[in-house]
Amino acid sequence: MTASPALDLAALAGLSSETWLGFLAGRRWFPAGARAVKLVGAAKLGEDAALCLLAAEAERPWTTQVLLRAQMSEGTGPEGHVPKRSIELGGGVELVEASDAPEALLALAAGLRDGASFAGQSARWTARASAGLKDAAAPTSVRLIGGEQSNTAAVLGEAGVFKLFRRIEVGRHPELELGRFLTARGFPHAPPLLAELTVDTGEGAAAAGVLHGFLPGRVDGWAHALACADMTGPARALGAATRAMHEALTTDDEASGMATRAIVQADRARWVVGLRQTAAAALGRLGQRYRGLQPELRALAEVVATRSEALLADAEERLRTAAGVQIRIHGDYHLGQTLYDPESGAWSILDFEGEPTRPLAERSLRQLPLRDVAGMLRSFAYAGMVGKGGPAWEAATSAAFLAGYDAAATPGSPLPAARESPLLRACVIERSFHELAYELDYRPDFTWVPLQSLVALSEAVPLPAWPRASQF
After folding, report:
1. What are the Aminoglycoside phosphotransferase domain coordinates in residue numbering (predicted)?
2. What is the domain-level CATH number for residue 412?
């Protein structure tokens, strides 16, 4: 392949909002419905790549980070790869994103190891590495993980697994906070934090990326679940690892900013408001896209809309009874955030950044630990419905997970048991509405999964009479 051309930051600054929108719209990590985009910061990595900050005019303020690489417009990239999208710069040069040019991450990896800084237009990126990483050799290979996800993740040789955050917000970032906390305490169910990348936007510092230790021999938790006819043993072990995570995050260490707090009335009110807002967003999107749904999905949508108030009233009543303690939690917990070791049967937990579509301040709040439990139960539901296991597989797997979670409780722990808690159902209901909004925005082919789940959840509450007119 022809050597990559040099990238000029001035060429990036001259790109129009329409060009950026055409390049970014529809990607899972870019806000749905964005109306305009402008470049607000950039810095070069070597000669042919650049880190960029792009401000999107969307439902709420949103700054996206992308790693771009310039290459000749030959139709293919490294090893014959055809980029999904590109921006033509003229002169036979095109811009591609890191998911289409992962070798651009090598320069960034070297900078992480060396604790380098990358300064450019209106932004400065700075790396901070652990002592062990500084002594390691620079990685010479890179392998993307999972294709296009909420963030760019890649294995950098033997150095570790790097995640470049797509959404940039000034303030405390849970991935860094929880990573530092768990690494300092030697938590066995998460890879160690090795390096951090931050960016100064002129308005303050924001987390831009993170490097964790590489765990060889592990398989993706979601893939393992789909391939596992009997998941009860691994699910029980995952329940125990999840409880261990929550016990580790139950701390009186005030200096860490992670100290446990008692639940008070303001917290219950906050959770009820969050429930209602999540459901309203999902139902609003469902109404907007109703006429584009297949007939069988329209029927499910009608049932969900009809029964939603009764379902939400049930969840709200449960949330108003919340008592005990609240802690920092994972925040976006599902099988895709785990790795399984088939040899030892051990689980590792990844990606402590919380739900990327939620505001950073919200992701840093203390929450009910049962929100993580509900997230994993919903992930089992997806695996059962998308895979071949079906309802029986889901029920057995969920029961084993809950049993493992409760059995692993530390004596005297202030955290509740999961199986008997009335709050668990409320958390499952809210998670299902969140999934509905997400699928409608980013994966419409999966909309049937949360719709079917919400219908099933609604069957346990008193229902209104069937309406004569469509809810949409």
Report:
1. 142-407
2. 3.90.1200.10
